[in-house]
Structure formats: structure tokens, C-alpha cells
Specification:
The chain has 4 helices and 24 strands. It has about 375 residues and is mostly beta strands. It starts with 10 loop residues before the first strand and ends in a 15-residue tail after the last strand.
Length: about 375
């Protein structure tokens, strides 16, 4: 959900997914974890009336799962231990909530949990907070309402306001007095989507994430007390907060590194079934492959250079820059990359291309008619 990226021509192409059955960080370690509602466990335990897979009840129950098995990681140079969220490092893709990836975070004293979207395309972490425009809960089809926690600085004993005089206050020019609470406003790429409020500090409750032990870690962080949410935040996407993972100083990974909690790095892994994990301070492995990032001077992003494209074994040399944005559901491409990929794929497809009608509400240019007995598009695949 990059708040600064703009495209002169935006075209939806396709959803990219991981094909691996396990979730591997940097290609060197991995782990399988199974919740009591997962398919492997359900096959062993003859339990009836479990939540339907993919439903809000299913993921709400998974929030309170047992700790998952940890993978091996390299320690940082100063021997700092990787950390993750207090309730574990698992992440979930929630199709009913904008197809974004979510994690359960715990903030404040007494501790409250929030189901937040993980967004590498923006920097600020914000929560719905004493809000006049926000989502308090969601009713799933045919099921009960899932109530969301709403943060309030007044009810957390570890909370404090960020004054306009603080060097963390980027919008200090909007302050009438240095002693006022620092305001913030983040406008996102999705039309009419924004979060407006003030900056506060409070405790983010983490835990060490290693093979040996789990120790609680309390990290003082700066985040947004979101009083007004608009656009997609009121219509299903990130209704209970957004966790900015960008490169700016205000992002949580940057704050954790500055406060010497852990290294200035993090890893995320998303499996094709929607379950993954996140770890802060993960340094990967000594033999991992690396891709250089092209940081922008005004606003650094996870921007990389693409030098070659291969579709169905057909390779084309085409260079362009792309931003990794976990807060965006689909892949967006400009020309000439869009035309090269889409037309090459279309030439390889064996199914009939769908002819759009005025009554269709399809956001994609390339759609195909499948037979009723098939669920996947038929196309030649060349494997290395």
C-alpha cells in the first residue's frame, strides 16, 4: 500500500503465488507447522464442526494457536537474537480482508491484540485509536461478529504522546504549538484511502525467536493513533490496523534496530496456502542469494531492478524497476513489461480467451473460459 508510488498506466495482470509446499527463509531453512484446525491435523483428529477453512472464524481461532517450530537462523554480528510477535511468528493471508497478509500483534499495558496487515510498501504502523471513523468488528456470512480491539492512549499505562517538538514529528509544520501532540496523515495508493491521527509511543510486546528459548521483549515504539480511516480501510482491507515495514526511520524494523533490540533486518515468507511467518533481525544464511535494492533518496523503498523475464520458457531481456509491496494484492506492471508478459502468456495459453461483455465486472484484460471440470488454466510449462 505504498503511499507515494504513482503509475501513469496501471494494468492488472495476475496474482503471483509461491509453489513450494513449505515456507523457506532465504532458501536455506524451513519448517512445517500445523494448527489444530489444519488439514493434516483434522485428518488425524475426528473433530466435527470446526470452522470452515478460510473463514474469519478459522483465522480468529488460529490467532490463539500454540507456538510454532522455529527455523535455524544466523545470529547478528553483535549476537542479537531475532524477535517476533508475542503470539508467534505466523502470518495469514485473509481473502475476505483484501487478500492481504496479516499477523497478530500485542500492544500496550494491559496488553491488547490487533490483527494488522503487513505492508512493506509503507512505513508507519498505525492502529484504530479513539476513532470516529474506523471498523469495530466484522460479521462473517452466517457466523458471529468478530469484535476488534480499539487502542486508546488513556487506557494504557505505558502510553505517551509524541510532541510536535520531537524529531519524530515529520508534520510539525501543522502544529500550532511545540507542546501539541504530533499529527500524521498517510494517503495510500488505493483511491480515497488514508489514515489520520496523532503519533504516540507505547510498548510492542515481542518474544525472542530462536531454537532454544522464548523470552518476552518489550520494545518502546512510535506508531499512529488512527482516529480517522477512509477508503479501503472501511471496506475490508486492514480494518484493525496496518503494520508498516518500510525503510524509513518511523517503521518498526528501523525503530527496533535504533533501540538495539535486534538487527536492522527482517524476513517474511508467504506460502501458497496463505500461511507464512515473519521474524525481525533474521540475517538469513551465509550462502544466500542477494538482490541489491535501489533506494530512492526522497523516500527509500524495497525497489529492485528486473533484468530478464521468462514466460513459458521464452526469455526476454527487458530492464525495469519494481517495488516489493506486501500491502498490494496483485502485480501491477507498466509497458513494455506488461505487454511482453501478457501477450507471451496469451500466445502460450491453450484455453479460449474470454470475450468481455458490457455486463462483466472483470478487472483483468486477459481472462480465459475453462471447462466445468477444470480449475486451472492449461498452458505449456517448461521446467529448468
Amino acid at each position: 500500500m505504498s503511499e507515494f508510488t504513482r503509475y501513469s498506466r496501471v494494468l492488472l495482470l495476475m496474482v503471483l503465488g509461491l509453489s513450494a509446499g513449505a515456507c523457506y527463509g532465504f532458501g536455506t531453512f524451513g519448517f512445517e507447522f500445523h494448527h489444530r484446525y489444519s488439514d493434516p491435523v483434522k485428518q488425524i483428529l475426528a473433530v466435527d464442526e470446526l470452522p470452515a477453512k478460510g473463514s474469519l472464524e478459522y483465522y480468529s481461532a488460529m490467532i490463539h494457536r500454540d507456538k510454532i517450530i522455529k527455523g535455524r537462523r544466523l545470529a547478528a554480528e553483535n549476537d542479537q537474537t531475532p524477535v517476533t510477535f508475542l503470539d508467534g511468528n505466523a502470518t495469514y493471508r485473509l481473502n475476505s480482508l483484501g487478500y492481504l497478509h496479516y499477523a497478530n500483534v500485542t500492544v500496550g499495558t494491559p496488553a491488547l491484540w490487533f490483527l494488522v496487515a503487513l505492508d512493506t510498501g509503507s512505513d508507519l504502523f498505525w492502529l484504530p485509536c479513539d476513532c470516529s471513523s474506523c471498523v469495530h468488528g466484522i460479521r462473517s456470512p452466517g457466523g458471529p461478529t468478530i469484535e476488534f480491539n480499539i487502542y486508546s492512549p488513556n487506557t494504557s499505562s505505558t502510553s505517551s504522546k509524541v510532541p510536535c517538538s520531537s524529531d519524530k514529528c515529520e508534520q510539525h509544520r501543522k502544529c500550532s504549538s511545540p507542546t501539541n501532540t504530533c499529527p500524521y496523515q498517510v494517503i495510500y495508493l488505493s483511491n480515497g484511502t488514508s489514515s489520520i491521527g496523532v503519533l504516540v509511543e507505547d510498548v510492542l510486546r515481542l518474544t525472542t525467536d530462536d531454537d532454544k528459548t522464548n523470552k518476552p521483549v518489550e520494545a518502546k515504539i512510535t506508531f499512529g493513533c488512527g482516529k480517522i480511516q477512509t477508503g479501503s480501510f472501511l471496506n475490508g482491507a486492514a480494518p484493525n490496523g496496518l503494520f508498516g515495514l518500510g525503510m524509513d526511520n518511523i517503521s518498526v524494523p528501523s525503530i527496533l534496530a535504533k533501540e538495539n533490540v535486534t538487527s536492522n533486518s527482517f524476513s517474511m515468507c508467504f506460502r501458497s496456502d496463505g500461511i507464512g511467518r515473519i521474524t525481525f533481525g533474521d540475517k538469513g544464511s551465509s550462502d544466500q542469494g542477494e538482490t541489491p535494492i535501489n533506494p530512492r533518496q526522497s523516500r527509500p523503498t524495497y525497489n529492485i531492478s528486473i533484468t530478464q523475464i521468462s514466460v513459458g520458457g521464452k526469455t526476454g531481456d527487458l530492464e525495469f524497476d519494481a517495488v516489493f509491496d506486501s500491502g498490494t494484492s496483485f502485480t501491477y506492471l507498466n509497458d513494455p513489461a506488461y505487454t511482453l508478459i501478457s501477450e507471451t502468456f496469451n500466445n502460450l495459453a491453450l484455453d479460449k480467451r474470454h470475450t468481455s461483455k458490457s455486463t462483466d465486472d472483470l478487472p483483468f484484460e486477459y481472462c480465459y473460459d475453462l471447462s466445468t471440470e477444470f480449475f486451472y488454466l492449461t498452458a505449456p510449462i517448461k521446467r529448468a
